[in-house]
Amino acid sequence: MPSASGTTPGKLPFVVWVLAAGTFLMGTTEFVVAGLLPELAGDLGVGVSHAGLLITAFAIGMIVGAPAMAMATLRLPQRRTLILALSVFCLGHLVAALSTSFTIVLAARVVTALATGAFWSVGFVVATTAAGPHNATRATGIMIGGLTLANVVGVPVGSFAGQFTGWRGPFWALAVLSGLAAVFIGRFIPSREQRVEVSLRAEVRALRQGRLWLALAAAMLIMGGVLATYTYVTPLLTDRAGVPAGAVPLVLIAFGVGALGGTTTGGRPGDRRPMATTITAAAATALVLFLMIPLSGNPVTATLLVLLMGMTGFTVNPVVTALAVHGPSHKGRIVARSGTPAQRRHDEPAQVPSQR
After folding, report:
1. At 265, which helix (H) or strand (E)?
2. 154/36 Cα distance (integer angstroms)
């Protein structure tokens, strides 16, 4: 029986899958550099540790840019915002793939991070609105699943391809695929879609809530430790553990599988006991990272620890995302694209920054 939103319970609109594909591309670009670090460093004439700034720059761009872009695009049509974000994302990869300057590639990474923040902040709202209230949770899960799948498939494939084509090959592929995604977004999101109208003052007022900052701080500390280690996982595996360069993508798949398992299993206990789940995941992640110091010299134990690092670290993701999204109270008004009030809803999520 169709719901009030016009969608059938259990059946998701095609646009949700298109948006999930966008999150897959953006999740891939965020992490793929970790598998290409030696190639990037050698081609751009910098040290491996210096090349790691390409991941740091993207992370900073997401931290600063996601909330800023969410507020900056409040008044823009959602369809136009998504197409613009994917277009900028595509252009950033084209510039990086054509450049021989580390500084330009670094700047391109910041720009693509800003585009990613804009896409995620709007994409989650579009997906849940299109899915309707009966399927909103499933739509959110599909969107997050696109990011998780990037760790399982996108990053290892990009790393493997980079060994044959050089680091520029995956960047070219991401540029082409994001351009195609922009076309699909323009085709499947109607020009008269509904959107949430929220004032900038309401967004700033929501940022005053301590619960939101507690969730963001937990995500920053836990994921910060995991991703800081993951940044240099390739030299750790090849130089310390003695893993052949050709086998590194397989270890990255292990990390992705662990992240998928953590994201999948973290939601259920997190719904019942969010604080206990977060503390347990944080303690387990700290233990795995500590064991990485004495046990990463063996390829078997190093691979196992990388898998566990993804599993324990990403367990906290669905918990803190739910706390951040559902903690603040937003009261938005759904209006048709023409601007005519359609209906009043007080549980509609406003544009939210990504909890990375």
Report:
1. helix 248-272
2. 13
What is the Cα–Cα distance from 149 to 58, expressed in whole angstroms? 19
| CA atoms of 197 and 42, how far apart (whole Å) | 48
- The pLDDT, as a whole number, for residue 340 is 32
- pTM value surpassing 0.85: no
Distance CA 194, CA 20 (A): 19
Contact of 235 with 37, CB cutoff 8 Å: yes
pLDDT confidence of residue 292 = 92
Please state, in angstroms and rounded to a whole number, the distance separating the CA atoms of residues 207 and 236. Answer: 38
Collapse the DSSP code of 342 into the 3-class scheme (helix H, G, I; strand E, B; otherwise coil) and give the result.
Answer: strand
Q: Of the candidates 126, 110, 131, 13, which has an alpha carbon nearest to the alpha carbon of residue 73?
A: 126
Query: How many other β-carbons are positioned within 10 Å of the β-carbon of residue 80?
Result: 15
Let me know: does 160 contact 63? Beta carbons within 8 Å.
Answer: no
Structure-block tokens of residue 35: 């598998």
**Distance in angstroms (rounded) separating the CA atoms of residues 230 and 248:** 12
Q: How far apart are CA 61 and CA 110, in angstroms?
A: 5
CA–CA separation, 163 and 252 (whole Å):
14
Residue 338: strand, helix, or coil: coil
Identity of the amino acid at 240: R
Average pLDDT by stretches of 10, the chain with 356 residues = 47 84 89 89 91 87 75 78 92 95 95 89 81 74 80 88 91 94 82 54 65 73 84 90 90 88 71 76 91 92 94 79 55 33 38 46
- Cβ contact 337:306 at 8 Å: no
DSSP string over 43-65: HHT--HHHHTHHHHHHHHHHHHH
3-state secondary structure of 330: coil
- Three-state secondary structure string covering 126-166: HHHHHHCCCCHHHHHHHHHHHHHHHHHHHHHHHHHHHHHHC
Asked whether 132 and 3 are in contact (CB, 8 A), the reply is yes
Rounded CA gap, 158 and 28, in Å? 8
